[in-house]
C-alpha cells in the first residue's frame, strides 16, 4: 500500500489512486525547505518517513503538465477547495513531480506572509513609491538556493544590474552569484528577487539549453487583496506598492512561455476574507480574477470513501491510532462522522486518539 | 433519609422548572449515556434490568451534563482531570491543553518506537491513554495524613484514604507540580507530558512527593491509635 518513491513517480496513474507513495528523506531538505504545511512536517518527524497520498487533483495536474505544449504562453492552474481539503499537499505533490523531471521550481510557500506581519518596510531604492521587505526576500532567496542548486551555475545573466554606486553584476555571470549577493546584502534583496524572476522569465522558453520553469504559489489570493501593513503616516499600503508582490504579479501574467504556473487559494492566511469563502471568485476578488482570468480550475474535494479507508489504514500501520476503540468498526464510524472526511480535521482528531 | 423522603414525595413539578443543573429532587433517576445498554434485545434482559426499564418509563430523569457523551472515546477519569485543570469555567482551553498533551506524548513515544531496534519495539508503550492511567496510578498515595487534635496539640495521624480521595490527590499534585515547579516559558502541555512520562516510569517530582507522604505516615505510626473511625 506504500509504493516506493523514485522510479514510480513518473508513471503514477489512476490505478494508484488512494495509495501512498514515499518521498525519500534526502529529498525533503532539497525539494521542500519551506513548502510543506507545519502539521505535516511534524508528522514526518514522528513517523520517520514522509508519505503522500496520490489523489485525483494532483494526478490531473500532473497529466496536464505532461501533455501541455511549452512553446505556447504559460497555462495557469488554480487549486481551490474547502478549508483543509488538501490543496497545499496536492501542490507539493506537483512540485515534487516537477523537480524530479528536472524543472526549475519557484516555490513561494505562502503569499500571505509577504503582505502581513512585516517588521521592516524599507522604501525601495529602485522605484520611489515602492516598499521593500528585506527579511522575507532574503529568507526566500536562501530557500530558493537550496532547492535549485544545480541550476544556479548553469543559467547566465543577460543584462547588467547595478545595485549601488559600487556594486553591480555584469552580464554573463551565473545566477548563483546574484542569489548569493541577495542573501548577503539584505538591503537590496527584494530587488535581487525581482531581477531573478525577470531573468528566469526571459530564459525559460529558450531553445538553447532551455529549462522548464514551474512557478508554485500557495495562497495566491494574498497578492490582490488588502495588506495589514502601514506606512509611517499610518496610511495603509496597497499590495502594488510592495516590490515582491509587484514582481510576482508579473510572473503570474501569462506573457512568457516554457513553463507552468500552479497556484492555490487559501482562506486560512487571507486577510479580510470571511471564513466560509472558498471559491476563486470570492477569494481572488475582481482584480485578482481578471488578472488570473484564463486559468484551469482544479477543485480539491474531501476524502472519498476509498481515500478515507487508505488514510485510516496508513495511520493504523504507523501505530498512530492508539486508542483501543478507534481500531473497531464503531470507532471508525465515529471518526467519519466527526471529521466529515475532511483531511485536516481527521488528522487533528487522530492526533490525540 | 432520601429513602423516606422518596416515599412521601409524589411526582410533582415545581412552578419554576429548572433544567440542566445539579440539584434535583431525589425522585429523579440518573441518565444512561452508554449505547450498548440500549442495544440489548428484549429477550436477553435480566429481571433487574426489566424492572429498571419499567421504572425509567414512569419516573423523570435528570438532564445529562455537557461533558458526558455516548461516544466510545468518552473517559470519566480524563473528564475529571479536565475539570480540575479548568480555570474560570473555561473548559475549551482545558480540553485543548489535555488533547495537546496526549498528542505530544504520543508523538514522543511513536518517534522512539520507529527509531528503536526490532527487539525493543514491544516494550515502548505508545498509547497516551494507558500512559496517563498508569502514571496516575503510580502517583496515587496509599495512606494519607489527617490533623487530629488531642490534648491541646494537633498530631499528624496516618489514615486510610478512599479511592476518590486518592485519585483527587494524584491529579491535584500533578497539576500544581506542572503549574509551579517548571520553567516559566514552557507551555502547559509540554510540562504535563514530561511529568506524565516521568511518572509512568516512576521518576519525577510527583512520585517523589507521594513517597515523602508515605515516609511521613510511616514515621508517625505511633499516633495511629488516635484515629477513632
Could you explain the architecture of this structure?
The complex is a heterodimer of chains A (353) and B (229). Chain A is of the alpha/beta class and 353 residues long. In chain A, 41% of the residues lie in helices and 13% in strands. In chain A, helix 3 runs parallel beside helix 4 (87-100) and helix 8 runs antiparallel to helix 9. Chain A is globular. Chain A starts with a strand and ends with a helix. In chain A, 41% of the residues are buried. Mean pLDDT of chain A is 84; it is low at 4-8. Chain B has 229 residues and is mainly alpha-helical. Chain B is 51% helix and 7% strand. Chain B has a two-stranded antiparallel sheet. Chain B starts with a helix and ends in a 10-residue tail after the last helix. Chain B contains nine helices and two strands. Chain B is globular. Classes of the chains: A alpha/beta (353), B mainly alpha (229). Chains A and B meet through helix 2 and helix 13 of A and helix 5 of B.
Amino acid at each position: 500500500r506504500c509504493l516506493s518513491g523514485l522510479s514510480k513517480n513518473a508513471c503514477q496513474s489512476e490505478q494508484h489512486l488512494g495509495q501512498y507513495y514515499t518521498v525519500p528523506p534526502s529529498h525533503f531538505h532539497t525539494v521542500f525547505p519551506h513548502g510543506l504545511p507545519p502539521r505535516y512536517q511534524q508528522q514526518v518527524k514522528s513517523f520517520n518517513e514522509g508519505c503522500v497520498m496520490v489523489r485525483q487533483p494532483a494526478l490531473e495536474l500532473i497529466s496536464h503538465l505532461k501533455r501541455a505544449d511549452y512553446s505556447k504562453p504559460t497555462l495557469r492552474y488554480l487549486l481551490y477547495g474547502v478549508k483543509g481539503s488538501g490543496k497545499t499537499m496536492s501542490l507539493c505533490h506537483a512540485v515534487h513531480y516537477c523537480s524530479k523531471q528536472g524543472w526549475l521550481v519557484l516555490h513561494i510557500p505562502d503569499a500571505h506572509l509577504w503582505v502581513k506581519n512585516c517588521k521592516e518596510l524599507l522604501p525601495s531604492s529602485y522605484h520611489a513609491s515602492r516598499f521593500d521587505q528585506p527579511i522575507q526576500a532574503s529568507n526566500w532567496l536562501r530557500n530558493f538556493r537550496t532547492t535549485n542548486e544545480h541550476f544556479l551555475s548553469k543559467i547566465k545573466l543577460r543584462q547588467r544590474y547595478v545595485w549601488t554606486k559600487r556594486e553591480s553584476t555584469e552580464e554573463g555571470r551565473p545566477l548563483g552569484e546574484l542569489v548569493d549577493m541577495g542573501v548577503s546584502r539584505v538591503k537590496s534583496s527584494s530587488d535581487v528577487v525581482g531581477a531573478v524572476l525577470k531573468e528566469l522569465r526571459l530564459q525559460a522558453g529558450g531553445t538553447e539549453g532551455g529549462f522548464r520553469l514551474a512557478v508554485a504559489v500557495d495562497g495566491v489570493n494574498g497578492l490582490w487583496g488588502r495588506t495589514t501593513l502601514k506606512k509611517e503616516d499610518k496610511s495603509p499600503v496597497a499590495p502594488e506598492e510592495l516590490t515582491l508582490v509587484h514582481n510576482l504579479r508579473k510572473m503570474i501574467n501569462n506573457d512568457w512561455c516554457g513553463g507552468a504556473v500552479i497556484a492555490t487559494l487559501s482562506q486560512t492566511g487571507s486577510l479580510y476574507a470571511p471564513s466560509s469563502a472558498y471559491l476563486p471568485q470570492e477569494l481572488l476578488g475582481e482584480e485578482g480574477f481578471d488578472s488570473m482570468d484564463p486559468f484551469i480550475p482544479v477543485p480539491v474535494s474531501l476524502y472519498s470513501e476509498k481515500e478515507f479507508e487508505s488514510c485510516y489504514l496508513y495511520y493504523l500501520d504507523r501505530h498512530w491510532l492508539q486508542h483501543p476503540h478507534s481500531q473497531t468498526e464503531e470507532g471508525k464510524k465515529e471518526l467519519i462522522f466527526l471529521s466529515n472526511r475532511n483531511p485536516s480535521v481527521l488528522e487533528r482528531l487522530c492526533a490525540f486518539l | 433519609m432520601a429513602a423516606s423522603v422518596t416515599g412521601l414525595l409524589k411526582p410533582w413539578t415545581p412552578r419554576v422548572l429548572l433544567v440542566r443543573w445539579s440539584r434535583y429532587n431525589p425522585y429523579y433517576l440518573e441518565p444512561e449515556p452508554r449505547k450498548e445498554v440500549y442495544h440489548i434485545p428484549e429477550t436477553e434482559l435480566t429481571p433487574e434490568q426489566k424492572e429498571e426499564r419499567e421504572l425509567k418509563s414512569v419516573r423523570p430523569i435528570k438532564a445529562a451534563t455537557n461533558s458526558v457523551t455516548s461516544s466510545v472515546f468518552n473517559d470519566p477519569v480524563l473528564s475529571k482531570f479536565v475539570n480540575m485543570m479548568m480555570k474560570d469555567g473555561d473548559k475549551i482551553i482545558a480540553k485543548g491543553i489535555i488533547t495537546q498533551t496526549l498528542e505530544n506524548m504520543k508523538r514522543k513515544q511513536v518517534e522512539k518506537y520507529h527509531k528503536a531496534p526490532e527487539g525493543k519495539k514491544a516494550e515502548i508503550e505508545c498509547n497516551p491513554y494507558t500512559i496517563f492511567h498508569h502514571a496516575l496510578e503510580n502517583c496515587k498515595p496509599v495512606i494519607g495524613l489527617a490533623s487530629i487534635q488531642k490534648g491541646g496539640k494537633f498530631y499528624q495521624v496516618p489514615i486510610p484514604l478512599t479511592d476518590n480521595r486518592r485519585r483527587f490527590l494524584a491529579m491535584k499534585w500533578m497539576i500544581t507540580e506542572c503549574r509551579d515547579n517548571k520553567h516559566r516559558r514552557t507551555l502547559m502541555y509540554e510540562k504535563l507530558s514530561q511529568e506524565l512520562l516521568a511518572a509512568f516510569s516512576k521518576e519525577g517530582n510527583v512520585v517523589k512527593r507521594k513517597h515523602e507522604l508515605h515516609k511521613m505516615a510511616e514515621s508517625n505510626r505511633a499516633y495511629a491509635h488516635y484515629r477513632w473511625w
